[in-house]
Design brief:
The chain has 198 residues and is α+β, with helices and mostly antiparallel strands. It has 3 helices and 13 strands. The protein is 23% helix and 47% strand. The radius of gyration is 23 Å and the shape is flat. The model has no long low-confidence stretch (mean pLDDT 91).
Length: 198
């Protein structure tokens, strides 16, 4: 009798189990932040951490993407109260420098619109960093996004609503870091299939 009961339970579990297949997640809401930091000790746990702190995201584990924005992405105000140790995914430009040498970081992004339907397709982002003036890094950012756009998108899409965000400073301590980031806060998970086992 116990054996039959176990078989019945297993059969019930198999009949009622549901499975879904999900696609790659799509970033949705994002905020823009930037920061500077300097340290006499080191870069990674010094000036870089302090730049993250200045940007308000030092409690997060930062992961970086390449340079594509989904069409559903929308800018929001930076949320309060991140959980210590949470993963924050971003598109980020970071520059490190030493005392007396300028560090500059910048991001440029814009949105692609279908030339025929006028529908928003998605966005392109480019990052740049180095010992540049703000004027020079803006010039390089414009060249970068133009190259990206004209090598794969210009025939079908228009690039509009272009924005540039930069940060630059000359550290007075031994190490310095600047950063600019597009930071994502939530995601859409597309369901590819939803099936019931038989």
């Amino acid at each position: 009798m116990l054996k039959n009961l176990k078989k019945s339970i297993v059969k019930t579990q198999l009949v009622t189990r549901r499975e879904i297949t999900i696609g790659n997640r799509i970033p949705k809401d994002y905020f823009i932040t930037k920061g500077v930091g300097e340290s006499e000790v080191t870069i990674h746990a010094g000036s870089y951490h302090l730049a993250l702190k200045n940007a308000g995201i030092e409690m997060c584990n930062i992961m970086t993407y390449s340079s594509i924005m989904p069409k559903i992405a929308r800018e929001i105000k930076k949320p309060e109260g991140f959980i210590h140790g949470e993963v924050m995914e971003s598109i980020m430009a970071v520059a490190h420098s030493k005392k007396g040498k300028r560090a500059s970081a910048g991001i440029i992004f814009g949105w692609l619109y279908d030339k025929q339907t006028r529908e928003k397709y998605g966005g392109l982002v480019c990052e740049h960093n180095g010992e540049y003036s703000v004027k020079e890094i803006k010039r390089l950012l414009k060249l970068s996004i133009a190259e990206l756009y004209y090598n794969g998108f210009s025939e079908k899409y228009e690039l509009k609503k272009i924005r540039i965000i930069t940060e630059s400073f000359v550290p007075q301590k031994r190490f310095g870091t600047v950063l600019v980031g597009i930071c994502f806060t939530d995601y859409i998970y597309p369901v590819i299939s939803n099936s019931k086992d038989k």
